[in-house]
Specification:
- This protein has 309 residues and is an alpha/beta fold.
- The chain is built from 10 helices and 15 strands.
- Strand 14 and strand 15 form a beta hairpin.
- The relative contact order is 0.11.
- The N terminus is likely disordered.
- This is tRNA uridine(34) hydroxylase.
């Protein structure tokens, strides 16, 4: 029998904070135990520079986790964005130790003291509508492909490590202009603005709380956002009001797919899509087809070990 508690929406929390976490290694095991004991699933990254991650669970469990994290020295004032999902968008809980909580590969950056000027979602439209503002999407190309802000520049990076090189190649375009950067939840653009400011640029801004906070707070009829926002879980994307979007993942290449992508003759569920069809062989597609068949069999049995693979 299904109870009312079982059918309640899952609460999802995307969180981060740049903070000096001396001895962060010691936090890993207790934090994993705290989450697993409350059936929270997702990923948390710990590094000397802070914490980053997305987790999901019951409202009670997520509230307890956020209170627990904010009691840790340095993590008070944690940046958190909440949304919901019909079912948990993660399959397990992972707490990982990393060199950086968002990997850029540039040393000696201190975002808490050197990041650009925060811009609230309510003030973002005015900034990016200014002809003197260069709007830069700091996310990767596959994320940008399903949605971005009107007029934003896409650096076409495959990973955040490529962003510094893009800035170096386009310094002249940034000179003498306001530079407004944004990302999914605020963490990448906070680090990106710190990097750009370290090069001597002064009029550098970023969207506080990222796209997620913008979509939560700015009404759709006033929005300059176009498309959907990619998220790193099984929901794939969210739209205005943080409602689950229509995008799906290609299980062959992990590229997010729009409705239009899925109408392509190159799209086959679990096998191929317009983004990977030319790069894969018939043998690859046969292998993916068999993998997809095994996933479907696992779903029919109620075995989640292969789901999302």
């Amino acid at each position: 029998m299904t109870t009312e508690k079982e059918i309640q929406p899952v609460r999802v929390a995307a969180l981060y904070k740049f903070a000096r976490l001396d001895g962060h290694e010691a936090l890993r095991a207790p934090l994993a135990g705290f989450c697993c004991g409350r059936r929270i699933k997702g990923t948390l990254l710990l590094a000397h520079e802070g914490i980053n991650g997305t987790v999901a669970g019951s409202e009670e469990a997520i509230t307890a986790l956020i209170d627990h994290l904010q009691a840790i020295e340095g993590l008070d004032g944690l940046e958190v964005k909440y949304s919901s999902a019909a079912q948990t968008p993660f399959h397990r809980m992972k707490v990982r130790l990393k060199r950086e909580i968002v990997t850029m590969g540039v040393d000696d950056l201190d975002p808490p003291t050197s990041a650009g000027t925060y811009v609230e979602p309510a003030d973002w439209n005015a900034l990016i509508s200014d002809a003197d503002t260069l709007v830069v999407d700091t996310r990767n190309a596959y994320e940008v492909s399903i949605g971005t802000f009107k007029g934003a520049v896409d650096p076409k990076t495959a990973s955040f490590r490529e962003f510094p090189a893009w800035v170096e190649e386009h310094r002249e375009e940034l000179e003498g202009r306001k530079v407004a950067m944004f990302c999914t939840g605020g963490i990448r653009c906070e680090k990106a603005t710190a990097y750009v400011k370290s090069l001597g640029f002064r009029q550098v801004f970023h969207l506080k709380g990222g796209i997620l906070k913008y979509l939560e707070e700015v009404p759709a009829e006033e929005s300059l956002w176009q498309g959907e926002c990619f998220v790193f879980d099984e929901r794939v994307s969210v739209s205005h009001g943080l409602a689950e979007g229509e995008a799906e993942l290609c299980r062959a290449c992990r590229h997010p797919l729009t409705v239009e992508d899925r109408l392509s003759p190159k799209y086959a569920v679990g096998v191929s899509c317009p983004h990977c069809f030319e790069a894969r062989s018939d043998e690859d597609r046969a292998r993916y087809a068999e993998r997809h068949r095994q996933v479907e069999l696992a779903q029919a049995r109620g075995d989640r070990r292969h789901i999302g693979s």
